[in-house]
Automatic annotation (TrEMBL), chains A, B:
NCBIfam families: plsX (TIGR00182). Homodimer. Probably interacts with PlsY. One of its GO terms (biological process) is fatty acid biosynthetic process. HAMAP family: PlsX (MF_00019). Belongs to the PlsX family. Its main location: cytoplasm. This is Phosphate acyltransferase. It is found in: Cytoplasm. SUPFAM superfamilies: Isocitrate/Isopropylmalate dehydrogenase-like. Pfam families: FA_synthesis (PF02504). It catalyses: a fatty acyl-[ACP] + phosphate = an acyl phosphate + holo-[ACP]. Pathway: Lipid metabolism; phospholipid metabolism. Catalyzes the reversible formation of acyl-phosphate (acyl-PO(4)) from acyl-[acyl-carrier-protein] (acyl-ACP). This enzyme utilizes acyl-ACP as fatty acyl donor, but not acyl-CoA.
Length: 348, 348
């Protein structure tokens, strides 16, 4: 933790832009004395915001002027072709050139995925990047879910690679040598699901580097029985966002129920801190950043409507991933698997 | 509501068998004076259970002896071939022969789907049956979600047919002439999702009989903006079960948080009725039965671990569907669409 860290931030993304990214950046340099932040965005806007917060001349907050912004409704292909001077693109280029060890953005997810893939490139042997996040469980340790939408549909080999990458991320985060990996399916029995799922299960089952546990149903995501849950992006995105929706609904129904009687109104007032804390704990939206894995660099995606604290949580996540050297560890694992495969082929 | 109703119940299914189905049947005949129930299952077991509840000679509780039971781990193909005298099969046969107007089972979902498809057959022009249920929303009216797992993968035409069927079910239930139909996707923009989703969206958009609203994200399922949300079975099952999982997690975290201090413990005790009521409201598991639509008959699937009340809720649902004549209305709609299509073809 004592070596110097440099992280590039896309300051202009998300619903709030510098209104949340500037306070988050200031909190981050206070929190990490070894952290330098490269603030990518419109120089005038950023300098003004820094001045307002009395941090204009902070030696570890360095503004990198970018002329363009990738907006939320910008199509990925358009962003890739026409937004070469955007804060998002420059933040990624800083990682590519080695000036930063990671980047964080709360901008347009599709554009970030395309740009990150294009600028940083895949690690050798990996087919597709995946978006991974941790979610709370009934136990103390969280569960890691991937892919959350980087790849709408996935072939069995891609799902298998996600299992390997998820296992490395969870292993480092939870300090476990053999994290338990499950495949999300519509039933726990072998006959359940479609062919792609069954083939992916076979690949995971046969791999000696994976502690594969079998299928996991949606109702079991939060049980804490698995450390990693693998699914294709379409399904992962729906599962994650359905959680957001139902968490919001439960909180709304609960506060409405409490409003019905004066007695419960008083209770509700007394319970406010508990309810607030709980909502933050269980709403994945509020939980932290999601990371792109499989690339030659660390990219953390913060939620579009991230508050200061949520954006700071994404910076925290980037710091942790730099310290854990996730991309190198993924690369080593895939190289080792390729060697095992070669050896078994030459033996045959 | 005054005409006589007859519903066949599979008494042996689910985790509790007659322990929940007998009390539910007794509650149902008390609730509906015009309802006769055909209780399919082992005669000795059922008579003994009825006697225990002092309802052995109730004139509207008629035992139909069945020698076999479809267990939870029985494969659908095996059930279809070898369980012709099971309570599940007999209940379906009673619907087919017209002796019952609907059937309810809390048994093995896969087996029920296969048997119902085989025994009752599809309505003309409909490709696949779908499992549909209502879920709570932020507004007063629920939303109808289909398919929940009857079809793992679906082609665009099948998703389109689900939209039509869902629209009829929701229209009748919510008393709306033009229920709002959305397609579940990983983003609201047109460019989001895979080809199958985009093709299904095109079919829905072009259909004059549908009030199609566009894509809906997972986080928007419970907003109350849509009356019907369409997805393929894999995705619907994951969404539904993820809700069960997160609802359970939230309740657990909430009660744990309340246990931490004596003050909150007292509050928790006072709040018990509100929490209990809320859990029932938002946990789809507890909500009610799911129905199979698209078949020549009414089949309601109650959850496997349904309590007396939950099984009664499934009987309630069957009663409502008989009164609403859902299968006839679906048939009429598809016939009308086929005629419109023929007319437009002959005009061309």
């Amino acid at each position: 933790m004592l070596t110097n860290l440099t992280i590039a931030l896309d300051m202009m993304g998300g619903d709030y832009g510098p209104r949340s990214s500037i306070p988050a950046a200031i909190l981050a340099v206070k929190k990490y004395p070894n952290l330098t932040l490269l603030l990518c965005g419109n120089e005038d806007v950023l300098r003004q915001a820094l001045q307002k917060e009395s941090h204009l001349d902070h030696p570890r907050l360095i503004v990198k002027h970018c002329e363009q912004v990738v907006t939320n409704n910008c199509e990925p292909a358009h962003a890739l072709r026409n937004k070469r001077n955007s804060s998002m693109r420059i933040a990624l280029e800083l990682v590519k050139s080695g000036q930063a060890q990671a980047c964080v953005s709360s901008g347009n997810t599709g554009a970030l995925l395309s740009m990150a893939h294009y600028v940083l490139k895949m690690l050798p042997g990996i087919k597709r990047p995946a978006l991974i996040t941790s979610m709370p469980t009934e136990k103390k340790q969280p569960v890691y879910l991937l892919d959350l939408g980087a790849n709408v549909l996935c072939d069995p080999e891609t799902l298998f690679q996600f299992a390997i990458m998820g296992s490395i991320v969870a292993g480092e985060a939870l300090d476990k040598a053999q994290p338990k990996v499950s495949l999300l399916n519509i039933g726990a029995e072998d006959i359940k699901g479609h062919d792609g799922i069954k083939q992916a299960a076979k690949l995971m089952c046969e791999c000696e580097h994976l502690n594969y546990q079998g299928y996991c149903e949606g109702s079991d995501i939060f049980s804490g029985k698995s450390d990693v849950i693998v699914c294709e992006g379409f399904v992962g995105n729906i599962a994650l966002k359905t959680c957001e929706g139902i968490a919001k609904l439960i909180m709304l129904k609960f506060t409405n129920a409490l409003k019905k009687h004066f007695f419960y109104k008083v209770l509700a007032f007394l319970l406010r801190p508990v309810i607030k804390k709980l909502y933050k704990k269980v709403n994945p939206d509020q939980y932290n950043g999601a990371s792109l894995v499989g690339l030659r660099g660390i990219v953390v995606k913060s939620h579009g409507n991230a508050s200061n604290k949520a954006f700071l949580a994404a910076i925290d996540e980037a710091v942790r991933e730099v310290n854990r050297r996730i991309p190198e560890k993924i690369q080593t694992a895939f190289e080792r698997m390729a060697k095992t495969e070669e050896a078994s082929v030459s033996q045959d």
